[in-house]
Amino acid sequence: MKVGISAMEYYLPEKVIDNDFFEHSKNEFLEEKVGIKERRIAAKDEATSDMCVTVINNLLNKNKIDRNEIEFMILCTLSPDYPIPQTSSQVQHYCELPKSLYAVDVRLGCSGFVYSLSMAEALIRGFGFKKGLVVTADKFSMYLSYRDYTVDTLFSDNASAVLVEENPKLLEITAHDFGTDGSGTEQICVKTGGSRYPRKDASSPFQLVKPGIERSDDYLYMNGRQVMKFANATVAPSAERVMQRAGITLDDVDWVIMHQANKLMLEDIAKRMQLPPEKNYINLWNKGNTTASSVAIATKEVLDRGERLNHGRYWIITGFGVGYSWGTTALKYVG
Ligand SMILES: CC(C)(COP(=O)(O)OP(=O)(O)OC[C@H]1O[C@@H](n2cnc3c(N)ncnc32)[C@H](O)[C@@H]1OP(=O)(O)O)[C@@H](O)C(=O)NCCC(=O)NCCS
Question: 3-state secondary structure string, 124-170?
């Protein structure tokens, strides 16, 4: 049985924030090193499910997909509309998807699209579903204080939606590699608001680290250097394992699409893989890090560019970060 992707869409909110917005941050650091000029921030009243509804409706309407044929939806987000209940139920309702829908939230960060895609594949192979949606969306701006330029500069709010089905029209899923290392829990973390430090008794005052960096446990913290070490050690071996499992080598690969975290880091990882730079897709410039949607958005951009779309050739997609968690998949272009 062949299972994979038949259609993709993504959504970025209208509001653009450029590098000049951040008083203490250096534009050259962001542009030359991280590779970011602009990011997108959702409106105050635009919740995660609103971005999901927009992107799903675009996907279904543009591709003339009958919403009554959608049998499952896997929705990956770390920024749900409410702590309780799950966001996938609201999205089912607002998108008028069938009530027979198998709908579930997945809580993962930057590995989320790759994991969710594998769950969709498993549902089709194991349960006999014919078609369903993988949706990723995050309003990470809700976790940013705009008092710490080391994280506030990096992220865009986002959503993506993908149709996964039997006999795919674009990209067939062929092999996977997954991993988890919870020793990285606090390296990318919002400490309060969960069961360990509930907000009602753990609201955290801001501490000044240096001008432009004030931190509170109520907002996102990232130890960029540690996360970079993890990514440098993890991504290339994971891609190697996936290629072995798919029975291919780099010569069979047209595109490697990594989680878009940092331009120089992606270039370094590509060197470790001995990947020619033109096969390493990088799109941080106008959106930065779009968390779980990043790999989906980059994949859709490659499809839209129409460059190097060769039937039967392979693409490697890989997501890594929060957790730590990583996932890598080999896709075969079948369009
Ligand atoms: C976050 C990241 C861009 C920071 O870059 P870095 O080169 O590692 O920078 P460091 O954190 O070591 O900080 C070095 C210095 O640059 C400064 N700096 C960080 N961001 C800056 C900015 N936007 N402008 C100016 N200086 C900045 C730091 O304050 C620090 O200054 P100090 O030496 O005076 O303390 C980078 O570590 C990264 O991309 N990490 C990987 C992230 C990732 O993979 N995430 C995946 C899951 S989300």
Answer: HHHHCCCEEEEEEEECHHHHCCCCEHHHHCCECCEEEEEEEEECCCC
